[in-house]
Amino acid sequence: MSESGVVLGDDGLARPAWASVDPLLRDYYDTEWGVPVRDERGVFERLSLEAFQSGLSWATILRKRPAFREAFADFSPDVVAGFGDDDVARLMDDAGIVRNRAKVHATIQNARATLGLREDPEGDLAAYVWSFRPATTPVPRTQADVPTTSPESLALSKGLKRKGFTFVGPTTMFALMEAIGIVDTHLVGSHRRATSGVWPDQK
């Protein structure tokens, strides 16, 4: 790894160490992480998966993502909001996903809260989450420079909790903001830095 914190891949592209070995993580980094997501279903899916990831590796969640999508009706908030006890039992028997009862219940609760947000003057889930975009984004040169929370992620966490969401702590919300492009924490030397269109001048 260079002093810049990035690793040069065999394809000549620079990435952080965490995205340089596992092909699954490398593809996710190159094609998804930090790419803007502005639709309700997409934000709900990522919010849900970030909650399931708590205490686990992101690679574990990515490998299980197809099973998660099947189990949770492709993360349709309208469908998941209607899940009942039989669905919880089904999910707890599904070895393809992370079988954590509290997180399963949180996903159902968050789907119901997502439907409630549609009536909010601040907009649906996607609009609400994006309303916490900061005025500036971090400019990390090494992984140690990447923050794990921010004033905006703390405010988003508090705001979502007030609106009935759970498993939305400030660290989880910062990870969500990174994943959907609200902040750009790609390392300065990475080939993905400032490519989202949200922060074009932050190289």
Structural overview:
The chain is an all-alpha fold and 203 residues long. It has one domain (6-179): Endonuclease III, domain 1, CATH 1.10.340.30. It is built from nine helices and two strands; from the N terminus they run E-E-H-H-H-H-H-H-H-H-H. It has helices at residues 23-31, 40-53, 58-71, 77-80, 85-92, 101-117, 125-130, 151-162, 170-179; strands at residues 6-8, 14-16. It has a two-stranded antiparallel ribbon. A hairpin with a 5-residue loop joins strand 1 and strand 2 (14-16). Helix 2 (40-53) crosses helix 3 (58-71), helix 2 packs antiparallel against helix 6 (101-117) and helix 8 (151-162) packs across helix 9. The two termini are 20 Å apart. The mean pLDDT is 94.
Chain-wise SSE layout:
Layout: E1 6-8, E2 14-16, H1 23-31, H2 40-53, H3 58-71, H4 77-80, H5 85-92, H6 101-117, H7 125-130, H8 151-162, H9 170-179
Antiparallel strand pairs: 1-2
Helix pairs in contact: 2-3, 2-6, 2-9, 8-9
Gist?
With 203 residues, the protein is an all-alpha fold. It is built from nine helices and two strands; from the N terminus they run ββααααααααα. InterPro entries: Adenine_glyco, DNA-3mA_glycosylase, DNA_glycosylase.
Domain tally: 1
Radius of gyration: 17 Å
State which percent range the strand residues make up. under 5%
- The oligomeric state is single chain
Overall CATH architecture: Orthogonal Bundle
Distance between the termini: 20 Å
Q: Which strand order spans the largest sheet, edge to edge or round the barrel?
A: 1-2
Broad shape: globular
> What share of residues is helical?
40-55%
Q: Kindly report the average pLDDT value.
A: 94
At the fourth level of CATH, the homologous superfamily is: Hypothetical protein, domain 2
Class of secondary structure makeup: mainly alpha
Largest sheet: 2 strands, antiparallel
| Highest-level CATH class | Mainly Alpha
Protein name: 3-methyladenine DNA glycosylase
Keywords: Metal-binding, Zinc
Pfam families: Adenine_glyco
GO molecular function, one term: DNA-3-methyladenine glycosylase activity
